[in-house]
From TrEMBL:
Superkingdom assignment: Eukaryota
Alphabetically ordered keywords of this record: Coiled coil
GO CC terms: CURI complex; UTP-C complex
Pfam families: RRP7
Any one GO BP annotation for this protein: ribosomal small subunit assembly
Compositional bias of kind Basic and acidic residues: 75-84
Protein name per Swiss-Prot or TrEMBL: RRP7A protein
Segments for region (Disordered): 75-103
Record family assignment: Belongs to the RRP7 family.
Domain Ribosomal RNA-processing protein 7 C-terminal per the UniProt entry, residue ranges: 49-168
Lineage summary: Eukaryota, Metazoa, Chordata, Craniata, Vertebrata
Coiled-coil stretches: 135-162
Amino acid sequence: GFQVAYVVFRKPAAVQAAKALSQEGPLLISTESHPVKTGISKWIASYEASIVDPKDLKAEVDAYMQDYDKKMAEEEAKAAKEEGVPDEEGWVKVTRKGRKPGLPRTEAANLRLLEKEKQKRARKELLNFYAWQHREAKREHIAQLRKKFEEDKQRIALMRAQRKFRPY
């Protein structure tokens, strides 16, 4: 069995009751009327206690969400009532839900904003500003077309060699 036991009392009166017990025989912690679970039986009991009934959990979550929705509706009503009304110092609180709502500060909104700025910059950037840039761009384009034409010619020759070429 156990060699050492540390006892913590919940109530101060329990210490006096423990002192009043007889010292003659050994004191047993686990009896038939009040068994103390140990080992695997304790683990099983704690595991079973940790499993939550889905119906109870759903009911608890639904109740919480109803309270939360009610609280949010009250806050929105209060904010709508106070919107545009100056406080005691004469300041008017500006919110996102006014005539011109502000941008939401989310990551997706920031990415969209950056993408729009990139497009604006690309539109403003002058491509082929000088005449020599025009000529170079045309040369590169013609070179690409010639390369593609040669590749197509080779592919057609290969198809003819395999007798699978059907022009129409």
